[in-house]
Model the fold of this input.
Amino acid sequence: MADIDWPRWLRPGDQVVCSHMSAEPVALLASMARCTQLPQPLHLLLGVPFSRAAADLPAGCLLSTYGGMGSAGGLAREREVDISSLAYSRSERVYQAGLAHCDVALVSLGRRSDGRLFMAPSHGPVLEAARQARYVIAQLSPHVPCVPGSEWPAELAPVAVLETEDGPWPLRDAEPGEVERRIAGLIAVLVPDGACLQVGIGALPSAVLDALASHRHLGVHTGMLSDGLWRLIEKGAVDHSRKTRDPGVAVTGCVCGSVRLYAAVDGHAGIVMREPGYTHDLAVIAAQSAMVCLNSALEVDLLGNANAETVTGPDGAWRWVGGVGGLPDFTRGALLAPGGQAVLALASRSSQQAPRIVARLSGPTTLAASDADLVVTEHGVARLRDASMRQRAQRMIAVAHPQDRDALSAQARALGLL
Done:
């Protein structure tokens, strides 16, 4: 099919909402970039993009993202990007409540043999945005898996469709190193058989999931289903048999991983994709017995405040490399769940040997100390839930890099914590 006739469907000033992560409409964004008469200005909500497709859009296309995750941080270093700190649980509710607006929705879809359309494997807020949109424009690929729970409503039929061979964006976890595997070993001890897991993607989550291979009767309720989680399902460590909500199935908001993973989840009855208002809902998470949420941060201070969004550049300016995501949602839900645990895992130092256990955060507070539970580095586990300020400082210093502990103790005394 020929390129989309964008001047027919877009108007200057339109708010355009894109499906995101593994459902990023890469072919549609590339088509927009090729259009020489693209109406402008346009505001595009990319969510969490994985590709660089939006980098080629003209300057009159104003981009916004959920933090600096995926390729968003790189885009922000190349052009102006409006960074949102919206908690992911609210990403669709702002459309339901009329607090955000959508004129045109760009979506990535697949089609089953019976003709029904399915969202590419990332739910996100685009469905709620599309319900109020003037038009829905879709890219359609035979390589998109049709995951239960992701059927596209017939009443939201696209007005224009771009046929493409682009499947979901493939992701490969970084290979865990020695530090990641040491942290994973400490976390595996904390996870009981029968726990329900929420975990992200990356070298550290991959190492933790590998360390859980001998566990049994685990369940999954997560924002992202990765290759690491899928390996646990294949090995029999995950069977969802002890889940107290949605037993028997993995509930996820997104499938992100390899081409093999996308093929495996196509039509799989044991996987259900749900919207952010369900996957990240406090009551839903709290209803899972033994909910174990595994997340990470860029730095954690002596009280347990965590920054998962920015690093500081040589000029002292914040550089966005992460985001709020579901960190506060899942942490608070786990704290309310019977037997729940919320783990923040990070190496005690960055790859540049900068301390990551700090006296004061250098960036925004993504997670407040009042919500902190367990902080794990390669040097141990700091149990912060219900701890006093003095206890928190002592326990955080104990899991810091040994060469950073004297300085942290001095800073803690100066702050009146010790």
